[in-house]
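[job 4471] stage=fold_predict status=RUNNING
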Amino acid sequence: MVELLEDSAIEREEAPLMDDCATSRLCFETPTNLALEVAFDGGRLTSDGGLTWLAKVDEELGLCESMAKHVPEWRKGKVRHSLWALIRQRVFQIACGYEDQNDANTLRTDPLLKLVCGSLPETGLDLASQPTISRLENAVDTRACYRMAEALFELYVDQRGEDGSPKKILLDFDATDDPTHGEQEGSFYHGYYEQHMYHPLLVFDGESGHLITAILRAGNTHASRSAVALLERIVARLRHEWPEVEIELRADAGFAVPALYEYCEKEGIDYTVGLISNPRLETLAEGLLGEAKDRYEAEGEKTRMFAEGAYEAGSWERERRVVYKAEAMEQGTNTRFVVSSRSDEPEDLYDWYIRRGESENWIKDFKLHLKADRLSCHRFIANQFRLLLHAMAYWLLDALRRKLVVAGTERMQLDTLRIVLIKIGGRVRELLTRVKLHLASSHPGQKLWQALTQMLHE
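[job 4471] inference complete, writing structure tokens
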């Protein structure tokens, strides 16, 4: 058990700490009359005191346990680490900001990471090293990744329905770039991004913000590749769970393909998808753009105007409704187009479409703050597994963020959440009857701990 102590409860007389440092001590001048001597000899300290909250939310979600069930056991003979412990160690390291496998070589002795992965801080076995983590990531096959993606989706269904059956679900589809290096399987040059890369497909719930799935694809894959097949599976599962739910799709111009429109129309799914401009669309918006320019020249203020029209691309089987924006401003003019089955007024529909920009913030959290683009394994399927591991870390931190929002805390980016809730230095002491965690007294994240603790007791 991990216990957070008040300052008054910390013993004043303690045994000397063992010096674990193999490096020289450093000395720094300070503004006072005393110099500062530094050495990595603090002993059983952790720099991630908030790991206990990651463990708590993982227990509530059952995430690492459900994922571990689908990892093939590649080891023979006596096993030192359970698959659950390996998954937890890897996911928790990612959530704490240690995305590289090599970090395991040092963190395997972190007393609090050991504790939340099922090993006592001092007397328990150390956690897995980098070679074991590498073998874990290369042990999976396509079937295992498919089952884990299903498990992640089932978690989404459970969480989305926690407050009752939703009346409507908005699916935000998006593709993103993941630069590659060397001769990685599935790495190809992409002309639009001008780099060798993978091209993951991400799906978020556009209203709740949940990450629904993350599918790795080869670097030369079109943005819409596999989108219809994935949408079919998602729709089937959602309608099985909630037969009356309305489902809607929103996506950028990379998904503007007839197969997607046709599937949505057949299944009664509203859609709004961006369109890449072309001469015919520009001709359609020519009159509106002229009006916008005239108004801007007369009033001297940025002008946005909206209209709609019927449009049929050469690959379409029929005309569809297209809403377009014409804009005139100091920097010049531009036009934007979306195809949609919705019946909103043009300006309302376009403004609703651009709210998909919120999913860009979720992708930023996923890629920048959870380092989901650190897919450096050689095997393609190992990188798909790694993408799912990062998705799991995202889920844990996002679940903590949601709890704090319910408690009245302002929503934070995940990197900010990590700093104020997880990255707290502390001393871990293994006693006969309990484990004690002494955290930094001056850390500003104390109020977040208090908010989460209060929620546990409500």
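[job 4471] summary: The chain has a mean pLDDT of 92.
[job 4471] exit 0
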